[in-house]
Amino acid sequence: MTTQERTARPKRAMEQKWQTRWETDRLYRSTVDWNRPKHYALTMLPYPSGDLHMGHWFAMTPSDTRARYMRMKGFNVLFPMGFDAFGLPAENAAVQRGIHPARWTFGNIERMRGQLRSMGAMFDWEREAVSCEPGYYKWTEWFFKKFYEAGLAYRGEAMVNWSPTLQTVLANEQVIDGKDERTGQPVIQKMMTQWFFRITRYADELLSFTGLDWPEPIRTMQTNWIGRSEGARVIFHTEEGDPIEIFTTRPDTLWGATFMVLSPEHPLVARITGEAQREEVEDYVKTAARKSELDRTSEEQEKTGVFTGGYAINPVNQERIPIWIADYVLISYGTGAIMAVPAHDERDFAFARAYGLEIRPVIQPDDAPEGFCETEAYSGAGRMVNSGRFDGAVSNGEKGRRNPAISAVIDWLGEQRIGKEAINYRLRDWLISRQRYWGSPIPMIYTEEGKVLPVADSDLPVVLPEDVQMTGVGNPLRQHEGFVNTTAPDGRPALRETDTMDTFMCSSWYWYRYLSPQETAQPFSPEEAAYWLPVDVYTGGAEHATMHLLYARFFAKAMRDIGAFDATMAAMQAHKRDPEVLTTGEPMLMLRNQGQILGEERSGHFVRARGRWDGANKLFATEVEVIDPAEVANGDPMAVVTSGFPTAEDASSGVVTGEIMKRTENLLTVASPSGDLKTIEVIAGARVIIPDIPGENTVNQLKHHLEIQRMSKSKGNVVNPDELVDLYGADTVRAYLMFGFDWEKGGPWNSQNIQGVVRWLDDVWEMIVNVEVTGAGDPAVERQIERRVHQTIKSVGDKLEAFNFNKAIAELMTLKNDLRAAVRAAKISHGVFHEAAKNMLLMMAPFTPHIAEELWVYIGEAYSIHQQAYPTVDPAKAAEETTTLVVMKNGKPIDRVEVAVGIGEEDAKAAALASAGAQRALGGGAPRRVVFIPGRGDQNVEPKVNIVV
């Protein structure tokens, strides 16, 4: 072994060189090839907020690694990228910065494209789709039209967060404590006519996950969100005869209904309210209108209500029961009315106790104690009581027809024509209307006669006007006369719909547009779709379980039903491919979710602030200096020994020492070593001294304490991937994200641990570039290297199949160590080293594509490593020659002996009895019995010999 002139591992320049070469060569261009198996790998597209954060890298680079691996396994891989570009942040930016949403969005997209390219991912950029471009949202509008024509889109009423100040609807996240987050003005709840999709029509189909390899938590979340409940619909009547329909999963408790509760928005409220209660009821209705749906349904929220003065007749026993209103009942869920059975429902029990209403048990266990249901509701099994003809019927605690009492009551309700068996869903139809500008227009018009008509296909897309006034008040489209005023098909004046679509509409079909983004005659090419669909693996965050992922499944099923896949299925059949894979209406066969990268824990600067006290807890600082905490511990004369804070006598010339726990611009919250907190306002012109940062310092350079929590700009704990790429290179960042975390769990960022990956890549570079391997080699060492290489080929492949990126890289690091040890000991020949290095680089290629490409060419192999096959395991070369024989005494291990693989029974017993452990155990005596248990190499089970004494 001789050392050549040393060269350091290059990073950004080398990576940019290969990225340019790959793009020039169109290395990752994916084209249909019916002679090869396809693999459609998809990772969730980003919103163009302006900067990629570490979360994007954590989602995308491991997904890219697996897509690269599948390509090396012989699959024709499609791995596209685009931008989900409509949305509220662009409108907020327009209002706050005086910039058009389109300009803000496309500027961000241009920046993020460059950042995405810096990853070195195998994105096929020729398939890029951007949802805010007219060529894309033309087809979003077209899908809306087709859904409308199929009866899947309709206008209906829904409760919304209405801002009287801004004259617009706000999303739940824009409402803080009942007020608009931007203006601080009150927000009210009101019913508004809007557009919906009938996702509920597909509720039962969405509950089936047959044929899908999706994580169980996602299935559970969607199942619970859909919330299928079996029970009965029952009609109560007011004393005036108005029907009140309720749904109950517990018709066996109907006889325990002692009052009813309506939503404050229920249309019967005004009619049934008595004059004595009217003022209180109207005040309560107004108060409820100021609460968000989230607040109203919160478990922590105290349940309140008001008696209307009206009564209803319980149809099963003709009892007259009072009708109340309460804000925890929603008009948008179910029928907006419930029967209250306080003895057997915790929420009803709490309400009844609060307002002194009757609690009547109607399900009672055989061992019911005295005072049953006086202190809490009972929801278990028992027999029906106080229920007339059903007394004694067994209610076994099961749901639906599996409960004999429920089954019997449902049958009886039907016979009496006062109710019927029913299934209810928690899922509500998808409200897609948004009273905003920056979204896909809804292609509908309203005629003078009141007709609602779709825009003709030939007039699509309805294009967003560019000359809008972004004032932040009202919907800009409603104020744009050129957009609002249009003509009906008969030439008469008409008004255009000014609501735009929920951005989830755009992201519910984008993987189809990737197939042919330049297509102008249809949303996607049937020929492309026949080959690539469905998506084979989809990766992204689990937080999208009940929104995007559920909408995506609905959308695919709706597309199937409107015939959007008919031409695709015909093309499949023409190519001898079974179209059944599309008839299920499932867009993604496999789903995998990554965890979250959390912010790193960090101590804040320990400071000494001098200034003037304002009261006992606030200091106006003229100087803030970062110091060593030891200065205080060692008796710093400017600090108070007991608390770290000055006493009242120091009010004229205050000093505060301690760790910065929080910083909001120039306001610091400082904690002393004893935990006392003080507020410091760093006044304009104050002197800031940070010894570790040369030059003039500012308050913005002061670091505050960070706990382990989700990364966000507001918390100041975001790790900028661009800075790390500039410092270490993209390969290092990619590999650290895969090595430092369990991908499906995530975890806190650790700025020190990245050094392990730096050393790994530096060692690989050093071993291949800076060391010349010569000599004959040691056959035993070379055989062991060969064995390790082939074992690693299998192990890395298995782990990539299972998305275990961290364990795969750990295997590669171990292989590097073994190979480097052989090189350093000069016990490996050039030929064996070259073969081992070649296989190692092929395995590294999916993880660290740039250095793998560079070294592949360096060792004399033909460009490009990313067009090579993943190495094949040779079982004979991977096989171990020796194994460990476990020696046991009465079933407990006492020794371990190295023996030949496949050792026979007699030889194994002899080796075990000759071991030091067996000799000690026997003490010169003879065993009663010796039992041989063969190993199972395919399951990594070692052979054993049990010595019975």
Descriptive account of the structure:
The chain is of the alpha+beta class. It is 33% helix and 22% strand. The protein contains 30 helices and 39 strands. Strands 9, 10, 11, 12, 13, 14 and 18 form a seven-stranded mixed beta sheet that branches. Strands 29-30-33-32-31 form a five-stranded mixed beta barrel. A four-stranded parallel beta sheet has the order 3-2-26-27, covered by helices on one side. Strand 4 and strand 5 form a beta hairpin. Helix 22 (730-739) crosses helix 25 (805-824) and helix 23 packs across helix 25. The longest helix has 23 residues, at 779-801. The relative contact order is 0.10. Residues 634-652 have low confidence and may be disordered.
Which features does this protein show?
five-stranded mixed β-barrel; seven-stranded mixed beta sheet; 949 residues; alpha+beta; single chain
Q: Low-confidence segments, ≥5 residues, pLDDT <50?
A: 634-652
Question: What structural category do the secondary elements indicate?
Answer: alpha+beta
**Total count of strands:** 39
Question: What is the averaged pLDDT score?
Answer: 92
How much of the sequence lies in strands comes to 15-25%
Helix content bin: 25-40%
